[in-house]
Sequence to fold (568 residues):
Amino acid sequence: MLVLGIESSCDDTAAAVWEDGTVRANVVSSQADLHEEYGGVVPELASRNHQRLIVPVVQRALTKAEVDVEGLDAVAVTYGPGLPGSLLVGLSFAKAFARGLDVPLIGVNHLEGHVCSVDLEGPRPGRPFLCLVVSGGHTELVRVDENAQHEVLGRTRDDAAGEAFDKVAQLFGLGYPGGPDIDRHAETGDPAFHDFPRSRLDGFDFSFSGLKTSVLYYLRDRSAAERKRLLADHLDDLCAAVQAAVVDVLVDAMRRAVEETGGEHVAVVGGVAANSSLRRRMGALGREAGVDVSVPALTYCMDNAAMIAQAGARRLAAGHTSPAALDVHPNLQL
Amino acid sequence: MTLLALETATATCGVAVLNDDAVVAEAHLHRPRVHAERLTPLIEDVLGHADVSTEALNAVAVSMGPGSYTGLRIGTSTAKGWALSADAAFVGVPTLEAYAARVGPMAAPEDVVCALLDARRDEVYAGALRRTTEGLAEHAPTTALPVETLPDWLGTVDGQLWLVGDGAPKSRDALADDAFSCVTLPADAVSPSAGWVARRGRQRLEAHGPDDAATAEPLYVKDVHATPAPSPFD
Fold:
C-alpha cells in the first residue's frame, strides 16, 4: 500500500510517501526562522507559509520517492489538533488531491501520528505500551493497546513541556523553538545550580506554567546589569537546571505509570523526545525498571508526515476512511 | 475547454463548471463558516451534474481575493489539490474582478462597476472595472482603503457608477455625491459568483496562460501585523 501523508498543523509543512511500513520520502519545511523574532508561532504567518509551501513540499516528496501520483492508494492528512488556518491548508489540499485521484482520504489525529512514530523505524514497541507524547503543544501520558486504542492517563493542565522550554528560552534571550538551544547549553551546565520547582499533581497530570513563572521571578528580582551578568556567566547552568526540572517531572510520571500499570514497554514521542537528557534518563529508567524503551529517531520526533501516513495506513487497513466533508478539529484530543 | 471554478472569498461558497463557452453547472451556498466542510462535496456534486470526470478537467480557476483569509485558504488549497491531481492548469482570478464582471452585462459603455467587500472597521476591499465598447477594463486597482478615501481612488466616472458587495452600504455615502449617478445592488441579491470566476478564468488563461500552482498565493492585500514579543522584564 502506497500512502501520501500530509501534515500542516503548526509551523512545519510536511509531506511523506510511505509504502508498506517503509518511508520512501519524508520532506519537512520548517518555518522556525520566520517565527523566531516573535518568540512563537504567529498563526496568520504560519498559514500563509503553508499556502506557499504545500505544493512544492508534496511535489518534492513524490519526486524523492520516485512515485507517480497514479500509483498512490490513499492520502492521509492531519485534521487536528492544531492551528485552524494551518490545518485548513493541508486538509483542503489533501481532500481535493484525494478526490482528484479517486483514492480514499484518511483524516489523522496529529497526536495519534506521534504515537505511531515509534513504529516507523527499528523494533516496534510491544503492546500494550505506555506512551509519553511531549511537544511544544502537547504533554500527554497514554496507554496504547493491541488495537491502537488510546487510554489517556494524564495530560498537562496548562503549558506543554515544549512550551515551557520555549517560554524560558525567551526569558534567557535564546531562540525559538527553545528546546534545542536549552538542550545544547545544558550539556555543559550544572543542573544543581538552582532548584526550580517540579509540579507533581494527583494522578498523571502535569503542570509546567509554574516553572516559567519561577524562572521569570528568579531573573526579574535582579537589576538589569546583574541579570545580564548572571546570564553571561551561568546560562549553561540555568539551562541545565530548567531542563532537569522538566525532565524530572516527565521521568517521574513515567516511572509511576510503569509501577502502577505493570507495563513492560514504554515510548516517548514528539518534539521534546529529541531532548538528549530526556532520552538518556528514559534509557536509564528502562534499565532500572526492566522495561523496553522506544524513542523515535530525531527526524520522527519533530512534526513530520511519515507518522501521519503510518497512522493513516493503519486506519485504512482497519477499514476507516474519512468523508469529503471532513473539517478541521483544532482542539481534537486522543 | 473544461474548467472548474471556485469562489470562497466571502460568505458565499460557490462551484461552477464551464464547458467550452458556457457555464453548464454551478451551485452556491450563502452561509458563512461552512466552506471547509462543504466545498469538496459541492465540487463533486457540480462535476457530477455537469457530467464531467476529473480526467476531463483542463483547468481549475479560483477566486484569489481579497476576502476572508479563511475562505481564501480553503479555496486556493482546494484548487491546487484538484489542479495537481487532475494535471490541469491553475489560474487565479482576482475576486473583485470576477464580482464586478458579474454586473458588467447590465452596464453601458463608460459605466464603472465598483465591487466592495467589508474589510472591518472603516475599511473596504475595493476593485473597479469600466465598461468599454470591447468589454471590461480595469478602472481602479484592487486595494484595501478607508471609505472616505474611495473618491480619490475611484477618480472620474463618465457614465453611471454601480456599487456591489457587502461593503457597498458603508461606502455609498462617501461615493454618492453630485459627481456620480450611483446605483447600489444589494449583496444578497447579487453575490460573488463561481460562474463569473469561471468566465474570467477562461479569459485569463487565453490572454496570459496558466499561473504556477506551486507558487500561487491569495491576494491578501493586507500584510500580517505581528509585533515582536515585548521584554518580559519591562
